[in-house]
Amino acid sequence: MKKVQIYTDGACSGNPGPGGWAAILICDGKEKEISGREADTTNNRMEILAVVRGLEALKSTDLKIEIYSDSSYLVNAVNQNWLVNWQKNGWKTASKDPVKNKDLWQKIIELNTRYSPTYIKVKGHADNRYNNRCDELAVAESKAFLKS
Question: Which among 2, 100, 101, 143 is least buried, having the fewest CB atoms inside 10 angstroms?
């Protein structure tokens, strides 16, 4: 079984505002960078979308996948069963508010079911070159709106 590492990050200029997401997929010593943007979004939405797009870029399901993110919100939602609880509670948070980005969380659930990835929290803006590169790509995508 091949191992794939997916590093992800999201950025937003203003919150909400123009945003960008990025992912780096690493397999067998090869790296692939992907990124994109949305005109009016939030940082959390971009963090989640980076994972969605990274998993959607895979061509096989017979993979051992590790997802690296500096978003505590994203990693905790999966690893601490927030997603499971939100579903059980009719997509309401513990404080009974509607869960934001429900559409993307539902896509994460679908992709997690297909791929069974492991989510790993990394420290943002530290010494992880892949996290730093994802940040550069995501910020560049969010700033692209300012140039147009």
Answer: 2
